[in-house]
């Protein structure tokens, strides 16, 4: 094992767990805990809950703080670790309510001011994997005054605008699907749809249209038949 804290692709994770001892299985098998020969504990967790295709491996001893995750994202020499640490920030916001957006944006700006041209790939990965482009209000809205909800909305909107401004400054597009970027084995490059996926999408649209036509035809036939029955019944 190296001094890395994350492994961010399935192939790397599968290779690393060969040298680890599994000690606990959680979430019906979606999460696993391991220990290495040096006594360090590792957590393998799913980062693609909708499909279950992708997972990361993180060393959890000692526990990583939000600042630790940001530092790994900013300075790790491994692209998959940059992506995994950035995505972990987003996951901990969702699962534990840990704030990171303002701190991460400030860190990116202060670390790479006037030097974006030399770190395009890293900054692009950080912004997309950490979901900074997403302006959705991720905070709980229950039992909150409307002014507080509006403040939360503005927080996420402002964070998204700042992230987009950084990408534009680097000459990069901002309308990239973040989910694909976050879970990709190559997180800096968006994977295009395959021909099979495209055909499947067209087929689903066709089925929806066919179903609508069938339903309308049925109701038309029913009403027409009902009127005929009423006249001669």
Radius of gyration in whole Å, from Cα?
24 Å
Order of helices and strands: EHEEEEHHHHHHH
Mean pLDDT: 84
N-to-C terminal Cα separation, in Å?
85 Å
Oligomer type: single chain
Q: What is the helical fraction, as a range of percent?
A: 40-55%
Low-confidence stretches: 178-195
Overall number of strands? 5
**SS-derived structural category:** alpha+beta
Give the CA-based shape: globular
Describe this structure in words.
- By secondary structure, the protein is α+β, with helices and mostly antiparallel strands.
- The protein contains eight helices and five strands.
- It has helices spanning 10-16, 66-75, 79-96, 101-112, 120-129, 146-169, 178-183, 195-232; strands spanning 6-7, 21-26, 31-35, 41-46, 55-59.
- A five-stranded antiparallel sheet has the order 1-5-4-3-2.
- A hairpin with a 4-residue loop joins strand 2 (21-26) and strand 3 (31-35).
- Helix 3 runs parallel beside helix 5 (120-129).
- It is globular and about 80 Å long.
- The model is unreliable at 178-195 (pLDDT under 50).
Please supply descriptive tags for the structure shown above.
globular; five-stranded antiparallel β-sheet; 8 helices; alpha+beta; 233 residues; single chain; 10% strand
